[in-house]
Amino acid sequence: MPERTQLTQEDEALRQAHNHDRRALRTRAGLQWIAQRLDSFRRDDAMTDNAFEQAARRYVLDAYADDRVANGVMRDLLRALPPVLEHDTRAMYAARVRLIVEGATA
Questions:
Q1: Which of 1, 63, 73, 89 is the most buried (most CB within 10 A)?
Q2: Cα–Cα distance for residue pair 71/58, rounded to 1 Å
Q3: Residue 69's pLDDT is what?
Q4: Which domain holds residue 42?
Q5: Does residue 53 fall inside a structural domain?
Q6: In whole angstroms, how far apart are CA 62 and each of 33, 77, 99?
Q7: What's the pLDDT at 35?
């Protein structure tokens, strides 16, 4: 009997759901780390696009050895992070990131 190499539709749906859940967990962990970093280091400084990009990059480099996974997590984080508002401090921005992690929408 030949070996099956193709997934059934049900198996493929389960695989995709598992990958989605794993990506969501990685993104959530990264957002939590970024919020903590911004809130605990120079929290009263003005928030910049560069600051959140650097925080995301640092998290990814510290957390993931696999470059392919790291690049995917970085893309997901940059998509999930809210835009920086004109008068945001790092602490204010961190609070908005925490709201995203908690599932709030603005």
A1: 73
A2: 12
A3: 84
A4: 9-101
A5: yes
A6: 11, 14, 24
A7: 92
* The two three-digit tokens of residue 90, written as one number: 């790092």
| Rounded-to-integer distance, Cα 37 and Cα 32, Å | 9
What CA–CA distance (Å, rounded) separates 96 from 106?
9
The three-point CA angle 28-33-34 to 5° equals: 100
DSSP code for 47: P
Structural domain tally of the chain?
Answer: 1
**Domain assignment present for 1:** no
Q: Residue type for 69, please? A: V
Using DSSP's 3-state secondary structure scheme, residue 19 falls into helix
Mean pLDDT per 10-residue section of the chain, whose length is 106 residues: 61 54 83 91 90 89 87 89 92 92 70
